[in-house]
Amino acid sequence: MRNLLQRHFDWIALNDRSYEFLFQRMGTDEVVSIDCETTGLNTKKDDIVSIAAVKIRRNRIHASEAFRVTVNPEAVLAADSIKIHQIRKQDVEVERPIRKVLPDLLRFIGNRPLVGYYIDFDVRMLNKDLFAMLNIGLQNPTFDVCDLYYDRKYGKAPPGTQIDLRFATLLADLGLPPRQAHDAFNDAMSAGEAYIVLSDLKARGIYLKRTTRSGPVHAPLG
């Protein structure tokens, strides 16, 4: 989350005052689980091709209130990215560009905290277009389920513990059902479920069992 001084400068820099609600307290305990699929992993050159977001209220995911949209990107849909998210050129040709999608997304998420797996990537992708639109970045606090999982699994781990932070491993370890990966809605749902379970474990002071085998660190993968 941006610090108070940065938020003050962002409020001054905001070039459309109809979006001042992004700086206001929501008056709710809701959070939003969000995921973006993209043309690649370069936050400067690649673009978003789909976004999904679901609200979490009182530890329940409200899938019926989901935000789901396919985006027509400016960047080329490369074959490698199509193999991952299965979104083709013909699937996006009739869709709106991100500048037309962002207003609806911002009104859906408001200033609610955002939840996701490796969420920093999603925020950077959104901020690239948000800066062009409003001259500011997202103001929302963020919770990365990867960090929450690390805390519950490896926070007190001794040296030599094998670390695996892959999304599929995380979900299996939490006993959550598998879904087709690299689908924005599925990933947002899975991240939301992981957030609920991990928040409950933290509240009860429970840590996940781990092995002590030495081995490579398996870093987060979208």
Detailed description of the structure:
It is a single chain. With 222 residues, the protein is α/β, with parallel strands linked by helices. The chain has one domain (4-203): Ribonuclease H-like superfamily/Ribonuclease H (Nucleotidyltransferase, domain 5). It contains eight helices and five strands; from the N terminus they run H-E-E-E-H-H-H-E-H-E-H-H-H. It has helices at residues 4-13, 79-85, 89-92, 98-109, 119-134, 145-154, 167-173, 184-203, and strands spanning 31-38, 48-57, 60-70, 114-116, 142-144. It has a five-stranded mixed β-sheet with strand order 3-2-1-4-5, with helices on both faces. Helix 5 (119-134) links the parallel strand 4 and strand 5 (142-144). Helix 6 (145-154) runs parallel beside helix 8 (184-203). The longest helix is centred in the last third of the chain and has 20 residues, at 184-203. The chain is globular and about 50 Å long.
Relevant terms:
globular; 222 residues; alpha/beta; Nucleotidyltransferase, domain 5; 8 helices; five-stranded mixed sheet
Spatial strand arrangement across the major sheet: 3-2-1-4-5
Overall residue-averaged pLDDT value: 90
The tally of structural domains comes to 1
The CATH superfamily label reads: Ribonuclease H-like superfamily/Ribonuclease H
What is the molecular shape?
Answer: globular
Content of β-strand: 15-25%
Helix content: 25-40%
How many β-strand runs?
5
> Whole-number radius of gyration?
18 Å
The total of helices stands at 8
Terminal Cα span: 21 Å
Assigned CATH architecture: 2-Layer Sandwich
Identify the CATH class: Alpha Beta
The residue ranges in which pLDDT falls below 50 over 5 or more consecutive positions are none
Structural class: alpha/beta
What is the subunit organization of this protein?
A: single chain
CATH topology: Nucleotidyltransferase, domain 5
Q: Biggest β-sheet: count, sense, barrel?
A: 5 strands, mixed
Spell out the helices and strands N to C. Answer: HEEEHHHEHEHHH
